[in-house]
Amino acid sequence: MYVWPCAVVLAQYLWFHRGSLPGKAVLEIGAGVSLPGIIAAKCGAEVILSDSSELPHCLEICRQSCQMNNLPQVHVVGLTWGHVSRDLLALPPQDIILASDVFFEPEDFEDILTTVYFLMQKNPKVQLWSTYQVRSADWSLEALLYKWDMKCVHIPLESFGADKEDIAESALPGRHTVEMLVISFAKDSL
């Protein structure tokens, strides 16, 4: 459990857009140490952190991150991608879903997008703000995005000051190739 390069890039994107965050409902999935979610909460968003319900130690790390950052108002819930649970059903509509380096294992891609699709049903205008580390040119979300009626916009890192080897006095993201995406419903009428 440590801060991954993608988390720093997503945190930078949140900081760049901090003026639009107050009052927004934000859910971080696969939160781990929760850097992006913590930044969103510090910028005034109403944040829920989540990690796998099957990994209670990950949920405890989320709680510790909230405690260390004096954020008692941030809720932590267990969500397992691709599984419908009481916690998933009980979530209020979200404005933004954060996902830092969740597109790590290709066998998880559809479960992640299934969960996001479910959340999009509650608020069709929700956006998934996601960073991922390029690990293989063979891995793609394109077919799954089409299947789930979603579209993806690539956000150039230089557009929000994240095109450096170090951000905010951190050695991250280093020389890792990190990409930023905004995923939403493909329907133009929404």
Automatic annotation (TrEMBL):
Catalyses which reaction(s): L-arginyl-[protein] + 2 S-adenosyl-L-methionine = N(omega),N(omega)-dimethyl-L-arginyl-[protein] + 2 S-adenosyl-L-homocysteine + 2 H(+)
Alphabetical list of CDD domains matching this protein: AdoMet_MTases (cd02440)
GO molecular function terms listed in the Swiss-Prot or TrEMBL record: DNA-binding transcription factor binding; heat shock protein binding; histone H3R17 methyltransferase activity; protein-arginine omega-N asymmetric methyltransferase activity
A GO CC term assigned to this protein in UniProt: male pronucleus
Ranges in coiled-coil conformation: none
Compartments reported by the entry: Cytoplasm; Nucleus
Entry keywords, A to Z: Chromatin regulator, Cytoplasm, Developmental protein, Methyltransferase, Nucleus, S-adenosyl-L-methionine, Transferase
Leading EC class: transferase
Biological role stated in the UniProt entry: Histone methyltransferase that dimethylates histone H3 at 'Arg-17', forming asymmetric dimethylarginine (H3R17me2a), leading to activate transcription via chromatin remodeling. Maternal factor involved in epigenetic chromatin reprogramming of the paternal genome in the zygote: mediates H3R17me2a, promoting histone H3.3 incorporation in the male pronucleus, leading to TET3 recruitment and subsequent DNA demethylation.
Stated name of the protein: Histone-arginine methyltransferase METTL23
Highest classification ranks of the organism: Eukaryota, Metazoa, Chordata, Craniata, Vertebrata
Gene this protein is translated from: METTL23
